[in-house]
Amino acid sequence: MFRIMFLLKRKPHVTHAQFRAHFERSHAAMAIKFCGHLFTQYQRHYSEEVWHGGDSRAVDSGFGPKPAPWDLLSVWTLPSEEHYNEVIRLMLTPELDPLFHADEDRFIDRAATVMIPCTVFDTGVAFNPKGTVFDTPTGEPSWENCDLG
Fold it and tell me: Which CATH number is 106's domain given?
C-alpha cells in the first residue's frame, strides 16, 4: 500500500469555511471524477487548530491550542506507487492539467504545500505482541533490545 499526504493552506483572502466548501465542491470532486478509480481511499481532514508548543505532560509548558498552519491534511491511499504515478500522469495530461492548476490558483497557497509520500504499515487494531516490546515471557514491556543508537 502506498500513501501520499498533503498539507494544504488556503490563500489569505479565503476563509477556512470557504476553503473547505470549495475543496469539497470542486477540487476533491475533480480528483474523484478523473482519478478516483485509482484510489483505495481519499480522505480530507480539515482543521483550524493544532495543539503544540511544549511538553504536553508539563503544566505551564506552553502546550495548547494554536491556529493550524494548514487547513487540510489530504490523504491519498493507493494500492501501489505505480497507481500514484498514474494519478500524476492523468493530472498532467493536456486536458486535466489546466483544470487542476486553475482551480488550485483560486484558493490554495501553493508555496505552503507539503507533500509526504509514505509506505504504510497497518497492523489493524488487534494487538499482536510478536516483535514488539511486549514480546517477553511475562508480557511486560522491555526496551532491552531496542536499537536507538
Answer: 3.30.70.100
